[in-house]
Amino acid sequence: MVSFSYGNSRGKGILVDLFNSFPAFSRRVEGLTLDRASLIKLEFGLLIPPFLPNRVEMITMGYVDLHLHTTASDGVLNPSELVRYAKAKGLQAVAITDHDTIDGCEEGLSEGERIGFEVIPGIEIKHSTGSMHILGFFLDIHHPSLNERLKYLQRARAERNPKMVEKLKRLGVDITFEEVVKASGGGQVGRPHFANVLLEKKYVRSFQEAFDRFLKKGAPAYVDKFRFTSKEALHFINEAKGVGVLAHPNTLGMNGYSELEKLVLRLVEEGLQGIEVYYPEHSAADVAKYKTLAERHGLLVTGGTDYHGMEKNGLDIGVGRGEMKLPYSIVENLKTVRNRSLSGR
Ligand SMILES: [Zn+2]
Ligand SMILES: [Zn+2]
After folding, report:
1. pLDDT digits (tens, 9 = 90+) for 28-77
2. Alpha carbon distance 193, 174 (integer Å)
């Protein structure tokens, strides 16, 4: 903690605004490596005011962020960088919740141990209907059935692209899996890369036409992405000693309270123990509604920014767009519920 005064800001806290004010850090976001000098500054979480060209941000110690992505899914920072950044920002604890994988947790946990920062191993699982996401916290990441289920998911995903190639061939399109992989530039292969190949080979005149005629859901070359049902996801989260929480309920597109309540009650029967009440896209009315729902049914309240590390809309870890200040008691409550259900086993 340092005292500072800079521009109109005055106070006590940790000075960091790495993305906006530290050029080397911004360069890392574009795929280059962070230089050593800035890494050291990042670790200490302290930037001297003259280095900050535009904005100084003060974060009071002790807040938490329980929804974060790393390079293990679609985040920009690797788990170690994310953990160091969170500490530099003055947070007290974070949860790593990558999409459908726990691959970033081990690294995040050991970096947390190294620098003395609390990291909660977690996951965010996409439900088979798409708009519902389930968060899992405090997972035993070495639990055999959790790992087995996630491996199954990866295998099922890997089979999807070759299946789409087969369907296109049957439709008379001359295409190979290698061409699609090449179009992806070596990254994760997806439908946009199929569209590029179709466009290049003049089967379609536009990207949109590729989706409309072949690739969109319901079109003849479409293959469903494998996803777990909520029941399966909550089952293996609980089995791996984790706590299952409904992520950002606003994406469910449910307007009425009673409709949402019905769904939540069904999920509770399947093993749900909490609701992500605090989320950057939730309005004040949303927050009030989800909080009431959680309280009425004895569910945990959690929150997080869903930070991916490259947000262009001013969203940042721990604070969202400035409105998120989540106390450590959220983590304590999660631990209490987890211990209670573990001892009840
Ligand atoms: Zn999500
Ligand atoms: Zn997310």
Report:
1. 333 323 333 343 344 344 443 444 433 334 444 689 999 999 999 888 99
2. 15
Q: Cα(250) to centroid of ligand 1, in Å?
A: 10
pTM of the model as a whole = 0.75
What value, to the nearest 5°, has the Cα angle with vertex 319 and ends 316 and 325? 165
Task: Give the strand order in the sheet containing 64-68.
Answer: 64-68, 93-96, 118-126, 133-137, 243-246, 272-278, 300-303
Are 95 and 66 in contact by the 8 Å Cβ rule? The answer is yes
Tell me how many degrees the CA angle 185-186-189 measures, rounded to the nearest 5.
Answer: 90
Query: Residue 115: phi, psi to the nearest 5?
Result: -100, 0
Q: Which ligand is nearest to the CA of 69?
A: 2
Surface-to-core class of residue 320, CB atoms within 10 Å of its CB (0-12 exposed, 13-18 middle, 19+ buried)? buried
How many other C-beta atoms are found inside a 10 Å radius of the C-beta of residue 148?
Answer: 11
The CATH architecture annotation of domain 63-149+227-343 reads: Alpha-Beta Barrel (3.20)
Lookup: tokens for 335:
């631990």
Structure tokens at 43: 């670790």
* 280 C-alpha to ligand 2 centroid (Å): 11
- 100 in Cβ contact with 133 (< 8 Å): no
* CA neighbor of 91 nearest in space, from 304, 345, 263, 321: 304
**DSSP H or E segment with residue 133:** strand 133-137
The pLDDT of residue 101 is above 60: yes
Q: Quick one: average pLDDT of 307-322?
A: 86
CA of 68 to the centre of ligand 1 (A): 10
Question: What pLDDT score does 287 carry?
Answer: 95
- Give 99's DSSP letter: B
pLDDT digits (tens, 9 = 90+) for 50-63: 444 333 344 446 89
Domain ranges of the chain: 2-58, 63-149+227-343
